[in-house]
Amino acid sequence: MRVIRPLHAAILVGDLERSAHFYGEVLGLTPARDRALGFAGLWYELGDFQIHLIVSAQICPDPVDAQRLGRNRHLALAVDDLLAARDRLEKAGFPVQASASGRAAFFVQDPDGNILELGEVPYGK
What we know:
Strand order of the largest sheet: 1-4-3-2
CATH architecture of the largest domain: Roll
Pfam families: Glyoxalase
CATH class of the largest domain: Alpha Beta
InterPro entries: Glyas_Bleomycin-R_OHBP_Dase (IPR029068), Glyas_Fos-R_dOase_dom (IPR004360), GlyoxalaseI/FosfomycinResist (IPR050383), VOC_core (IPR037523)
Keywords: Dioxygenase, Oxidoreductase
Strand content: 25-35%
Protein name: Glyoxalase/bleomycin resistance protein/dioxygenase
Helix content: 10-25%
Low-confidence stretches: 64-70
Organism: Gloeobacter kilaueensis (strain ATCC BAA-2537 / CCAP 1431/1 / ULC 316 / JS1)
Number of domains: 2
CATH topology of the largest domain: 2,3-Dihydroxybiphenyl 1,2-Dioxygenase, domain 1
Largest sheet: 4 strands, mixed
Structural class: alpha/beta
């Protein structure tokens, strides 16, 4: 057996409408076609990859401490213009934190405290 490629990432959210605004409007992701999920949630397309927002009452109510951003589990997304992404997120009220690694990347929290890393391609340069 060998792993071929990633399929999707599941992200737990507390308020689907608020999260749909962040992922759909602020980040500009495209919703996947309607699917009968059998639970409260939304899917977004990213090429051959998907992000699944799943409503859960098990969300930790306290936001992740900003000192630890990037040291915890997170989802990394490539962007074509890091400065434009930073500007868009900050104007929408989502503060960002530069990566301590020196890479062209930063971290941001979604409305439920999930951590996203946004970086430019080629990654790590």
